[in-house]
Specification:
By secondary structure, the chain is mainly beta. It is built from three helices and 37 strands. The protein has helices at 9-18, 495-507, 560-570, and strands spanning 33-36, 43-50, 55-62, 68-73, 82-89, 92-99, 107-108, 115-122, 125-133, 149-155, 168-173, 189-193, 197-198, 204-212, 220-228, 235-242, 251-254, 266-272, 278-279, 284-288, 296-304, 313-314, 317-323, 329-330, 332-338, 345-346, 353-360, 375-383, 388-397, 400-408, 419-427, 432-439, 448-449, 460-466, 471-478, 510-516, 519-527.
Length: 572
């Protein structure tokens, strides 16, 4: 009988016992993203993913007591669609992976790559939570990539699976690069911009403007940040910093000129070349105003002008959208990686050269009065300059790596954006964060130094998290006093010498520097570079469909015995 709540614990146990390599004993990932697929808000999709593990989890919830279906489609219709259908049938739970070749009844896939975790019916709303590999290596499945995908849905009024009539629709969503929109508050904003400067004819120029925001007597939460760029070919990145109370004067000029503006180091917002707007999660915001209504802020703009063009005017900046309806958490940004110190040198001629920045969070308690909470990381921005090829951020606990916070195996200097991690990553007190960057300098004839210039290098990961703590940065640089062999920049590089030099830097004790938002850095010569795991990756073979492709996790296909038992269960 259909009660107010219906579930399937027996099937969950059956799946657990038979799924083999596809089953993870870990709990389901958080589902931080949500989108109504229809204008009447009857069809709700929630999802979360882990790009490193290679899984994506969905919850589809539709206001119906009948069957429900969800799919991925090349053109928003049935032809070529990959879909799942679930219902409470007369013989028990029905849930199967299908594909369609046209506007006909979809066919059951020969390999079942979607795995049901739960199905419920509560007060006339049917919901199912299910998981699949982001790339299943199955020709009958749609291969999810970081581009917008047409999602389709359909449902019936009864559990008998038949033609849906008008109960269907489609919506285009970028599942892996989703940006939320809070349209209800879109009118409240102000701009923090450079004031019509002339960009110098320098390859690299950093301009800083220090000023107050509009005065808000009541605390506001910033929930969305939008770039307003005048010169897309020159503006490389912008960082908005909060200033300590002793910075009381406006400033408009070159950055790092030895004045008080250099003390504004609390990162509030970050934008990189190639990125668009970024919206924070629904339960978190960046606090401004209220007790901090007289605080000054510094907008740092990096101009990259390799052609040394003269005379360009610029008033680029950030549009700040805010609300007085405060959210549950204050957002903080933690800068991690390698201290951009000029004495850190990358030799020329390297086919690959790794740098490492470490952050032991056990040091946070020395700079905080309150206990250090768990930090929930929801997004990151990974940053190197032109020689950067790869960047990874790993999380270690009790000396062992427990996760990747983020990674980019195909880093693009021209595409630097804040990326949602897909599922919340938790940094616990005493965890260690390790940022690894991989560079190629075969086209360079001299040393590349860590530093601010475009031809210098950086290795940074900006972590967006909540709840906010008063720590601004936690990064490191190696103790180079005992480095014995440094490759000669005037002679052709020997790769073995380069590897030896890299190993000496990574095995040396690391100076770890932790700073509060007001400055007050604390330095420790005790950190070591831990060994990061290899990036998990499997290559799909024989994929021919033009709308399919990408990195795969082929080992996560369900075994035939599990499929057989699932089919048998539906007939009980």
């Amino acid at each position: 009988m259909k009660g107010s709540v219906r579930m399937w614990p027996q099937l969950a146990l059956l799946y657990l016992l038979t799924a083999g390599p596809t089953w993870s004993s870990a709990a389901l990932v958080d589902l931080p993203f949500m989108e109504y697929l229809d204008s009447n808000q009857l069809v709700l999709l929630q999802w979360g993913f882990d790009e490193v593990v290679g899984n994506i989890t969905f919850t589809l919830s539709i206001k119906t007591s009948g069957w429900i279906g969800f799919g991925l489609s090349p053109k928003g219709n049935m032809r070529g669609a990959d879909m799942v259908i679930g219902s409470f049938g007369t013989s028990g739970i029905y849930f199967q992976d299908h594909h369609a070749t046209g506007n006909v009844l979809p066919m059951v896939d020969s390999t079942q790559d979607y795995f049901l975790h739960s199905m419920t019916e509560v007060e006339g709303r049917t919901s199912m939570t299910f998981q699949r590999a982001i790339q299943t290596c199955d020709e009958e499945d749609f291969h999810i990539t970081a581009v917008p995908i047409k999602l389709i849905y359909a449902y019936g009024q009864t559990d008998e699976i038949k033609y849906h009539g008008f109960n269907r629709g489609t919506k285009e969503v970028n599942l892996l690069r989703y940006i939320t929109r809070d349209r209800s508050q879109e009118g409240e904003h102000f701009d923090f911009k450079i004031d019509n400067i002339t960009i110098p004819a320098n390859i690299t120029y950093y301009h800083c403007r220090v000023m107050k925001m509009p005065r808000f007597d009541v605390t506001q939460h910033v929930y969305r940040i939008e770039p307003r760029i005048d010169n897309l070919d020159m503006v490389h990145h912008m960082i908005l910093y909060g200033c300590p109370l002793h910075v009381t004067d406006d400033y408009d000029g070159p950055c790092y000129a030895g004045n008080k503006a250099d003390n504004c180091i609390k990162v509030m917002a970050v934008w990189g070349v190639g990125a668009g707007a970024y919206e924070l999660p629904a339960d978190a915001g960046i606090p401004i105003g209220g007790p901090n209504k007289d605080t000054l802020y510094r907008l740092e703009t990096h101009y990259n002008n390799p052609a040394t063009i003269a005379g360009r005017q610029d008033s680029s900046g950030l549009r700040i959208r805010h609300t007085s309806n405060l959210r549950r958490y204050n957002v903080g940004t933690l800068t991690t990686g390698v201290v951009p110190s000029h004495d850190y040198r990358i030799p020329p001629g390297a086919t690959q050269f790794h740098t490492y920045g470490t952050c032991n969070t056990s040091l946070f308690s020395e700079l905080m009065e309150d206990p250090v909470p768990d930090l929930k990381v929801f997004a990151l921005l990974l940053h190197t300059h032109l020689a950067g090829r790869k960047i990874r951020a790993g999380l270690f606990r009790d000396g062992q790596q427990v996760d990747f916070l983020a990674l980019d195996e195909n880093y693009d200097f021209a595409m630097q954006e804040v990326i949602s991690v897909g599922s919340i990553k938790t940094i616990k007190p005493n965890d260690t964060i390790l940022v690894e960057c991989n560079y190629m300098t075969t086209n360079r004839s001299g040393y590349t130094h860590m530093g601010l210039g475009t031809m210098d290098e950086m290795c940074l990961a900006f972590l967006l998290y909540y709840p906010e703590i008063p720590i601004n940065s936690c990064w490191s640089t190696p103790d180079q006093r005992n480095i014995e062999s440094v490759p000669n920049e005037l002679q052709p590089a020997d790769q073995e010498d380069i590897i030896t030099y890299e190993n000496q830097l990574s095995s040396s004790p690391q100076y770890q520097i932790v700073s509060r938002n007001e400055g007050q850095p604390s330095m420790h010569l005790e950190a070591t570079v831990m060994t990061m795991n290899a990036t998990p990756t499997v290559t799909c073979r024989n994929l021919q469909s033009p709308f399919k492709g990408g990195r795969c996790s082929c080992s996560e296909i369900i075994g035939g015995s599990a499929l057989l038992l699932l089919l048998l269960w539906s007939e009980v």
